[in-house]
Amino acid sequence: MPADIRVVVADDQEIVRTGLVMILNAEPGIRVVGEAPDGRRAVELAQRLRPDVCLLDIRMPGMDGIEATRRLAGPAVTDPLAVVVITTFDLDDHVYAALRAGARGFLLKDAGTALLSQAVHAAARGDALIAPSITTRLLKAFADTGPAGPRPQPIDPLTDREEEVLAAVARGRTNAEIASELHISLSTVKTHITALMAKLVVRNRVEIAMWAYETGRTSGRA
């Protein structure tokens, strides 16, 4: 029997934090091992407990969720933890910053129990999940504002199939959905995603999706 997914929850609103803890502990295979009222405490707990997933609110006093994400999962972190950002603010520019800081997923607090559980499970297995209902709207909105600098093009050009997988990831499709759409096996999808991460020099499918939007590659080959 697989071990439970260990989670640390951080939110400055006690009633929200308590609710998230209750929801997660009621889910089979998930166990909350720590909770924090702010980012600084969340980082301390996460670095000490090494949970499988950290669920962080964006707006917290002192150290916010963005800085906490950067310290736990940023490019400079040798052994990054999986972070899922949760917020009440749809299309808040802080969300884009959190994804840039290394978050593996983004959910709204009204996403529902099922999607919350899916996001935790996805992050724990090294995948990433952004609520499908807001994936394209969220990433396109921030891509339209322009990235901090021009995105480097891959040294090795993407294959036609990789372009198709890239566009599907940007639309918020899961691996299973991509396999079905493109009539390929699940293992082949995973192989293409691994190749995309290597070619684009990104860390996860969230960054693959951001790269697709920032380079106008959301509908297949540009």
Automatic annotation (TrEMBL):
Sites of 4-aspartylphosphate modification: 57
The protein's name: Response regulator transcription factor
InterPro entries: CheY-like_superfamily, NreC/VraR/RcsB-like_REC, Sig_transdc_resp-reg_C-effctor, Sig_transdc_resp-reg_receiver, Tscrpt_reg_LuxR_C, WalR-like
Keywords associated with the record: DNA-binding, Phosphoprotein, Transcription, Transcription regulation
Domain Response regulatory: from-to ranges: 6-124
Top-level division of the source organism's lineage: Bacteria
Species, as recorded: Paractinoplanes pyxinae
Coiled-coil segments: none
PROSITE patterns: HTH_LUXR_1, HTH_LUXR_2, RESPONSE_REGULATORY
Presence of the UniProt keyword DNA-binding in the record: yes
Domain HTH luxR-type: 151-216
SMART domains referenced in this protein's UniProt entry, alphabetically: HTH_LUXR, REC
